[in-house]
Amino acid sequence: MSERNAAGRFDAVAFHTALDRTRQDRGLLWKDVAQQAGVSASTLTRLAQGRRPDVDGLAALVTWANLSADDFVRRTDEPRSTDTLTKVATHLRGDRNLTPEAAEALEALITVAYKQLVSDRPE
């Protein structure tokens, strides 16, 4: 492993997926995203190709989409953490569109599906 990548890497594919979900939720075209976020269309094209944005582009896009860049940093110096379900539950319970009961129901569904898929994953 190179020293440059010793601590972690930025998951550009996951970031692009999150941006696309936000774009769809807002009913926008990619050109609208570029205009509203203040980035070039080529920045979004590079992201769609799995390439990382520059720091200013990243800052503009996480701000536009109300995301945290930390959510897309994959640590490579530690084994995979089991905190995925905790993070999901935290987000669901913080969603103002969901009642506490709805958040709990979604959390239960996701937990069952996650555990099933993790256990089915080939080693």
Describe this structure in words.
There is one protein chain. Helix 5 (84-94) runs antiparallel to helix 6. This protein has helices at residues 12-25, 30-37, 41-48, 55-65, 84-94, 100-120, and strands at residues 8-10, 73-75. The protein is mainly alpha-helical and 123 residues long. The protein has a two-stranded antiparallel sheet with strand order 1-2. The chain is built from 6 helices and 2 strands; from the N terminus they run βααααβαα. Helices cover 59% and strands 5% of the residues.
Question: Unreliable segments (pLDDT under 50, ≥5 consecutive)?
Answer: none
Q: What fraction of residues sit in β-strands?
A: under 5%
Question: What does the radius of gyration come to?
Answer: 17 Å
Distance between the first and last residues' Cα: 21 Å
The strands making up the biggest β-sheet line up spatially as: 1-2
Helix content: 55-70%
Order of helices and strands: EHHHHEHH
Descriptors:
single chain, about 120 residues, mainly alpha
Offer a concise description of the structure:
With 123 residues, this protein is mainly α.
Topology:
Layout: E1 8-10, H1 12-25, H2 30-37, H3 41-48, H4 55-65, E2 73-75, H5 84-94, H6 100-120
Antiparallel strand pairs: 1-2
Helix pairs in contact: 5-6
